[in-house]
Design goal:
Oligomer: single chain
Strand content: under 5%
Radius of gyration: 30 Å
Strand order of the largest sheet: 1-2
Number of helices: 15
Largest sheet: 2 strands, antiparallel
Shape: elongated
Helix content: 55-70%
Structural class: mainly alpha
């Protein structure tokens, strides 16, 4: 049997002991095999082992619990996951090597906290689920996955550092409150219809994205009016200079961490305009409208709250 299959005698004995190969004992105690079926079975085992399948998968195939195609597909998927993990580790090591010695400890700490791209992606998803918590997940799932970049399968040094920095940003204790304040604005407790506000603001952002893409500067107009109306209606109020001022109370739109988050996200989206850029455009337009709104005396005071970001 060993000569006909090219397998070592000890290997054949092992397969017999593991139940992979059936045998019977002769009167003298020797293992006896059916020449045709045993040879065919051992050759199949040898070939499946040669392409990397484990004994558990091979046993399932031999027992008819899984087809060869299914076993191969499962092993291919396992390898994809393993390769992604190895690629992430390789990029992380290269990123640590590439940084100046004075910053090596800082980068090591950053990357050590983000050892796996898939885990970081899950962390980002959970962050946005908390931000949009008043809305049913079924309504926001598409938005979240569209705006959270997938970890690259074979990341570059810059990509693995950027992805790790995204994880570090959302892990900051105050980041959740800061982003919630930007999204829901002041006095979120007054919002009567969170889902309606979410939908209306999303429609506005969809129309603002082309403006940002075309380089149109923030301005008063239909997009801003709809944004303000969405917030006003959700709170049972109407658009007015006073309400626009209220929308800017405690505004966190200029927080450097928010801008950094969307700048890092943009590295993975290429030329695609992020929703963060659209929000910044609307904020600048709102700030300008408040700055230029005349007082009762007709003056247009400068309020010092405009912050234009790329």
């Amino acid at each position: 049997m060993a000569r006909s299959t090219g397998l070592a005698v000890r290997t054949i004995r092992f397969y017999c002991d593991e139940g992979i190969l059936e045998s019977r004992r002769s009167a003298g105690g020797h293992r006896m095999f059916d020449p045709e079926s045993a040879t065919e079975r051992l050759l199949l085992v040898r070939r499946l082992r040669a392409v990397g399948l484990g004994l558990a998968s091979i046993t399932d195939v031999l027992k008819g619990e899984r087809s060869i195609a299914e076993a191969i597909a499962a092993e291919s998927t396992r390898l994809d996951i393993e390769f992604r993990s190895l690629a992430w580790r390789r990029a992380s090591l290269r990123a640590i090597e590439a940084v100046a010695p004075a910053r090596r400890a800082e980068r090591l700490a950053l990357l050590a906290a983000a050892q796996d791209g898939g885990a970081v992606h899950d962390c980002l998803i959970r962050f946005w689920r908390r931000i949009l918590a008043p809305i049913p997940w079924s309504d926001v799932e598409k938005w979240v996955y569209w705006n959270v970049p997938e970890p690259p399968a074979d990341p570059s040094v810059d990509e693995v550092v950027a992805y790790a920095e995204l994880a570090a940003l959302v892990a900051e204790p105050d980041m959740n409150r800061t982003v919630r304040q930007q999204y829901w604005r002041c006095r979120p407790d007054l919002i009567r219809d969170s889902r309606g506000l979410y939908v209306d603001v999303g429609d506005v952002m969809a129309d603002v994205v082309p403006l940002v893409s075309e380089g149109v500067r923030p301005r008063a107009g239909g997009e801003l009016d709809r944004f303000v109306n969405a917030h006003a209606s959700a709170r049972g109020e109407r658009d007015s200079p006073r309400f626009r001022e209220q929308l800017l109370i405690g505004a966190t739109d200029t927080d450097h961490r928010i801008h950094r988050y969307w700048a890092l996200t943009g590295q993975f989206f290429g030329t695609r305009v992020t929703v963060g850029q659209a929000h910044h455009w609307v904020y600048d337009a709102l700030a300008q409208s408040v700055q230029l709104a005349p007082t009762e005396s007709g003056e247009r005071p400068y309020r010092g709250i405009i912050a234009n970001f790329p």
